[in-house]
Write a structure and sequence with these properties.
The N and C termini lie far apart (76 Å). Strands 6-5-7-10-11 form a five-stranded parallel beta sheet, with helices on both faces. A two-stranded antiparallel ribbon has the order 1-2. The longest helix has 24 residues, at 2-25. It has a single domain (32-335), classed as SGNH hydrolase (Rossmann fold, 3-Layer(aba) Sandwich). It is α/β, with parallel strands linked by helices. Helix content is 43%, strand content 17%. The radius of gyration is 21 Å and the shape is globular. The protein has 13 helices and eleven strands.
Length: 338
């Protein structure tokens, strides 16, 4: 028993030493700290959506790769103020998660802002995205709030983990989101989430592993490819996207889905494309678009450590989306900048 206690004590000391050394060398960890500040602090509970952006929230959002500010307007959007009333400009409502929200970039660098200011004209691009959202939450948000903006086009920026998400049960303590419990969550996922929020060493180890997988084990299936085997998840996704298509159509808008690739795997999401073809919903896959970039530019799309787009990635995504809108005839020609 004494030897067991000595062994456990040595392991604990080693773990604590590793944590101290990482914290000493890395002022802000890659995931946990930023997730806690940027998502939990600016969120408020919602009886139908789990949580939403808190109107008027403003926080500094930083880690070792970026230092930005997140400001939420009076209607809960990371965007400027738009009136609900119909207006002359063509209107696009964007639904998405942390990618469309602008994780790690300033608001002016976000894909929605770049699309509106650099590639379109006479067009409102209204960003309803919420970090951490899945497709069901985006559907309900559109039905509750998005329709009020009278959009002509609804863009959904779809990432592979949307396939494995429901509306979460969210807990708030002293006004701060403190715990997210997704259905079917195992105790190991709870432990992983806790470590990501509190341990710099665990986060560094996770990011190092992910980087090695991307560099050396490129045949490892992506999240989307692995999830494609779950017929039940795809059945639910079909229902959500069908309802979103019909809800948009009932309000005079067209639906288009934009697929976001996993970092380092610029391939087309074939299961999603097949589903959207069956639903006759327009689809643009950024996996194929990013793959067409020169090698040097492909390396600039994502942050070196973080799994989200850097500023160049947002600009490239906006450019490809504008091109797709032109090719598919989803926006009047005069709304596109030459």
């Amino acid at each position: 028993m004494r030897r067991v206690l000595l062994f456990l004590s040595a392991v604990l000391i080693a773990l604590l030493s590793a944590e101290w050394l990482v914290r000493l060398r890395v002022p802000y960890n890659v995931y946990g700290w930023t997730r806690q500040i940027a998502q939990e602090t600016i969120s408020m509970p919602s009886p139908t959506l789990g949580y939403v952006n808190r109107p008027g929230a403003s926080v500094r959002f930083r880690n070792k790769e970026f230092d930005t500010h997140v400001t939420i307007n009076s209607r809960g959007l990371r965007d400027r103020e738009y009136p609900y009333e119909e207006s002359n400009p063509f209107r696009i409502v964007v639904l998405g998660d942390s990618f469309a929200f602008g994780w790690g970039v300033e608001q002016a660098e976000c894909v929605t802002e770049v699309l509106e200011e650099r590639y379109l004209q006479g067009t409102d691009v209204i960003n309803l995205s919420v970090s951490g959202y899945g497709t069901l939450q985006e559907l309900r948000l559109f039905q509750e709030d998005g329709v009020k903006y009278h959009p002509d086009l609804v863009l959904v920026l779809w990432f592979s983990n949307d396939l494995d998400e429901r509306i979460p049960e969210v807990y708030f303590h002293n006004g701060r989101m403190s715990e997210v419990d997704l259905p079917r969550t195992r105790w190991s996922k709870h432990l992983r989430l806790w470590l990501l929020r509190h341990s710099y060493a665990f986060t560094l180890l996770r990011e190092t592993r992910n980087d090695l997988n991307r560099r050396w084990f490129k045949r490892r299936p992506s999240i989307a490819e692995a999830a494609s085997r779950d017929e039940d998840d795809w059945r639910l996704m079909r229902g959500w996207l069908t309802e979103l298509r019909d809800s948009a159509g009932a309000h005079g808008a067209t639906l288009m889905v934009v697929g976001i690739p996993d970092k380092g795997r610029f391939v087309v999401n074939e299961p999603l494309r097949t589903l959207l073809d069956e639903l006759t919903v327009a689809y643009e896959d950024l996996g194929g678009a990013f793959a067409s970039l020169p090698e040097a530019d492909r390396r600039r799309v994502y942050f070196p450590l973080d799994d989200h787009w850097a500023a160049y990635g947002h600009d490239a995504a906006a450019r490809f989306i504008a091109q797709a809108l032109r090719v598919k005839g989803l926006i009047p020609e005069e709304r596109l900048r030459s």
